[in-house]
Specification:
It is built from 18 helices and seven strands. It has about 425 residues and is α/β, with parallel strands linked by helices.
Length: about 425
Amino acid sequence: MRSFKKISALGLSAVLALSLAACSEKESSEGGKSGGSQDQVTLNFWTFGATNYEDLAKAYEEENPNVKVKVRAAETAEHHDALFTALSAGSGAPDITMLEIDQLDRFKAAQDQFENLYDLGAKDIQDQYLDWKWSTGENNAGDFLIGLPTDIGPKALYYRTDVFEEAGLPTDPEEVAKLISSPEAFEEAGIQVKEKTGKPFIDSIEMAFRSYLDAAQETFLNPEGELLIEQEGNAVKEAYDYAVKLNELGIVGKFEMWSPEWANAVNKGEFAAELGAGWLKGWMEGNAPEAVGKWRVATLPTEFAANWGGSFISIPKETKHAAEAYEFAEWLISPDNQIKSFQSKGLFPSAPSVYEMDSFKNNEDEFFGGQSTAPVFAQAAQDINGAVYKGEKYFPVYQEVLNALKDVQAKGADPEKEWAAAVKRAKDLMNR
């Protein structure tokens, strides 16, 4: 799932935590939390975005005639806000729900309102999934699992072969990955593109900033809620300085992602490369008709290896059918079903065994000139070092730093003064 969208009501987490603390834990009902039964069971499953979960739910019902799965799909923001409201009220929550990775810490603050999936048997399947994805679904102590791993968003280098060729750079994905194998080499390639074609290397200063930022395991906040960006050697300042450097080199464009100008630039080849997640493929295929066959994908330097997006499957405590809900969730995220979700909707698997399946490895993409892009993203997924902690106020603080960078690029503002002002604004946010 795309995780780039800002979600409304982000600052309500503290209210949720307080309100939920007053709710008493419901007693297990007969045939519910204590174990499965052969009685007819209806499971309400809340989803968001484009998934194939409706089809998979029907397949599960055929295999399990005693279980009915009612799937409710909604937009990302609507979904999470409705779940937030239901949990706050103590009623109306589904039996099973998706949680987007960037919303996870918001709901971890109220883990008492969710089943600990370790209590339902999740340890038995842990070794089937990427370590960093699995640990992202745990609490800080590692003894509570709020969500089972589904899709992920490994980042890679999307690049225009026509622009690279004009710049005198290789166009074969393996050769590109070998050439652009470090942040320094990334800069050098960008300078060559700018000198030979007059075009920026990457689309925006935000993507320049995210090259380092997304790969950092500690960014703006730590699990104790402390602001880290004033500390010496903080990863956010390193990412900020790198973005400033790329901008000063003249290799950063002014195409803000998702804007009409950006979409047109992707289609027309007005910049050379994008640092994007696996789900960006689907957008390109549906929205850049003039670019068919002109884009390819290569792995990024390991310093930039990162995840951008993805989801988890959770079970609210309110359910009367925890055992049945878990059985369905475990089945839904199995490797055999993750490959189906990948093939039908592009949800990138978090189970490494899928990466060895022929139907995965040989999945050629016409838009990318017949390249089998899946193995590139699979390698990118396995290059990621560990789980990233974001915290409840990640996006508001992120936006303050990004605003500073935009002023540096658009107004020629002093980078250090803008950084200091952004830090001050961030501290004010934390004190609200």
